[in-house]
């Protein structure tokens, strides 16, 4: 066949003629072809280097092109590229063991999926079948995936264009002290009132109709919302009281992002099901899964589980997971995320907020942080407001462009910059990124104060 194009223009000629992009207005796109990547950086075809403070879609936890993961995929490709999930496979079994060994409590079995969306689909299906109940309670300000069910569970504007209502999906408010739905002024107040609210939702929906409560232990795309002390334990207790399963959606928060293997381990809470993807193998080959304990496993010990996927536990993806998890352990990558988050990244971002009044709040842990930007610190008016995706360019586009021009690739969402570098990021790279953010915030700060 023709040789591959080796310039951005050549790639874009084919790309613009034949590709359909997810989440996008097709004619308004100007995608940047990426030529290569290494560690915390990637390069375009003009040789410009970008510090990846987004970890792509918050999934390259181990950094780009980790040599041990690349080599494991190469070895596996030579030996056995694919085999159906009905057969046993060494990489799949090893990946499941490594994940189970790091999981909280009694969670020790894994159903592998292709990504996060289908992990959430299966977790909800399991909860419904185990309890015999129809409903799932999901939080406003959440993202759970792009399929029909999971997008209906999602509590953000991405749901709006497709929302026809999904049977059995009910939304509740989680804690978010900066914009408290409960008029709380302190963290303990927010935790206690958010729990009282959830308790009422359960009571009024009918506890006997609720199969599961699903939440992101640290809410990801909707703002890096770190739960106040006692909230997750309180949800666990409510679920136990009513025979409801607790699903922790750790697709974004899991595998090192919060400085622990799983985010729930920051609060010693053990859910019934954990959904994961992204960081499990940093997306070198697509992989997700559901981690479950005996309550769920035993329900399918003697009756078939109704569901599966052709690529469930794909050998290339699982070989990448084995290598990624092993390297993360051997190289102290999760500890690196915890340490640099607490000692360098968090303090650095707080320092930025002292200089830039456009920053309303700084929050996060590990390598999972957000700057929430406001027009006015007193009123907390969002810059820009919550809205459906699309619309004319505004201050956040200007901020992103200012970052990119200086060699930083940011994660921008609504009125926030999420600072989510790979877990392998170094102190020098963090300082480089903070300096660029400082300059970019000065550029927009002068217009939007
Ligand atoms: N759940 C959460 C918390 C996520 O952040 C995401 C993706 O960002 C998903 C589910 C969906 O995962 P995927 O895009 O791999 O299907």
How many β-strand runs?
16
Helix content: 25-40%
Query: What is the total domain count?
Result: 2
Rg computed from alpha carbons, rounded to a whole number of angstroms = 22 Å
The end-to-end distance, rounded to whole angstroms, is 55 Å
Question: What structural class results from the helix and strand content?
Answer: alpha/beta
Query: Briefly, what CATH class of the largest domain?
Result: Alpha Beta
CATH architecture of the largest domain: 3-Layer(aba) Sandwich
Structure description:
By secondary structure, this protein is an alpha/beta fold. It has two domains: 8-65 and 332-448, Alpha-Beta Complex (Aspartate Aminotransferase, domain 1), CATH 3.90.1150; 68-330, Aspartate Aminotransferase, domain 2 (3-Layer(aba) Sandwich), CATH 3.40.640.10. The chain has 13 helices and 16 strands. Strands 4-10-9-8-7-5-6 form a seven-stranded mixed sheet, sandwiched between helices. Strands 11, 12, 13, 15 and 16 form a five-stranded antiparallel sheet that branches. It has a four-stranded mixed sheet with strand order 1-2-3-14. Helix 3 (67-79) runs antiparallel to helix 10, helix 4 (90-102) packs across helix 10 (315-330) and helix 7 runs parallel beside helix 8 (231-242). It is globular, with a radius of gyration of 22 Å. The termini are far apart. The model has no long low-confidence stretch (mean pLDDT 96). The site of pyridoxal-5'-phosphate has 17 residues, from helix 5. It holds the Pfam family Aminotran_3. Belongs to the class-III pyridoxal-phosphate-dependent aminotransferase family.
């Amino acid at each position: 066949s023709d040789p591959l194009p080796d310039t951005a223009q050549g790639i874009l000629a084919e790309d613009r003629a034949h590709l359909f992009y997810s989440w996008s207005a097709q004619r308004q796109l100007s995608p940047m072809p990426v030529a290569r990547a290494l560690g915390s950086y990637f390069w375009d075809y003009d040789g410009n280097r970008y510090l990846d403070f987004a970890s792509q879609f918050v999934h390259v936890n181990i950094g780009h092109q980790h040599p041990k993961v690349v080599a494991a995929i190469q070895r596996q490709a030579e030996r056995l590229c694919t085999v159906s999930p009905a057969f046993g496979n060494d990489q799949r079994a090893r990946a499941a063991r490594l994940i189970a060994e790091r999981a909280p409590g009694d969670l020790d079995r894994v159903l592998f999926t292709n990504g996060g969306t289908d992990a959430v689909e299966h977790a909800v299906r399991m909860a419904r079948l185990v309890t015999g109940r129809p409903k799932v309670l999901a939080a406003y300000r959440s993202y759970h995936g792009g399929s029909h069910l999971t997008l209906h569970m999602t509590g953000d504007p991405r749901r709006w264009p497709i929302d026809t209502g999904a049977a059995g999906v009910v939304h509740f408010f989680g804690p978010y002290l900066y914009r408290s739905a409960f008029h709380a002024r302190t963290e303990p107040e927010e935790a206690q009132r958010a729990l009282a609210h959830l308790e009422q939702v359960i009571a009024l929906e009918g506890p006997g109709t609720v199969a599961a409560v699903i939440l992101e232990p640290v809410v990801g795309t909707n703002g890096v919302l770190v739960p106040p002390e006692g909230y997750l334990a309180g949800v666990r207790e409510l679920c136990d009281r009513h025979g409801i399963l607790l699903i922790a959606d750790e697709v974004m928060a899991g595998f090192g992002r919060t400085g622990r293997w799983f985010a729930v381990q920051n609060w010693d809470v053990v859910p019934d099901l954990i959904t994961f993807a992204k960081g499990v193998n940093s997306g070198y080959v697509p992989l997700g899964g559901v981690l479950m304990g005996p309550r769920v496993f035993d329900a399918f010990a003697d009756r078939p589980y109704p569901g599966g996927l052709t690529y469930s536990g794909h050998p290339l993806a699982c070989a990448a997971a084995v290598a990624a998890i092993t390297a993360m352990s051997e190289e102290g990558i999760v500890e690196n995320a915890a340490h640099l988050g607490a000692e360098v990244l968090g303090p650095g971002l707080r320092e930025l907020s002292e200089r830039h009044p456009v920053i309303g709040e700084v929050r996060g842990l590990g390598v999972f942080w957000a700057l929430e930007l406001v027009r006015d610190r007193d009123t907390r008016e969002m810059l820009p407001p919550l809205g459906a995706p699309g619309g004319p360019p505004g201050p956040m586009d200007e901020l992103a462009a200012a970052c990119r021009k200086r060699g930083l690739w940011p994660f921008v969402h609504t009125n926030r910059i999420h600072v989510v570098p790979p877990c392998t990021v170094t102190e020098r790279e963090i300082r480089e990124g903070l300096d660029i953010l400082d300059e970019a915030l000065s550029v927009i700060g002068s217009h939007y104060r």
